Amino acid sequence: MASTADSAPEPWNQETKDKFESEAEDGQQREQFNLIPIRHLLIRLRDASSMSGIRGPDR
Question: Tell me: the pLDDT tens digits for 8-17?
Answer without folding.
Answer: 566 667 787 7
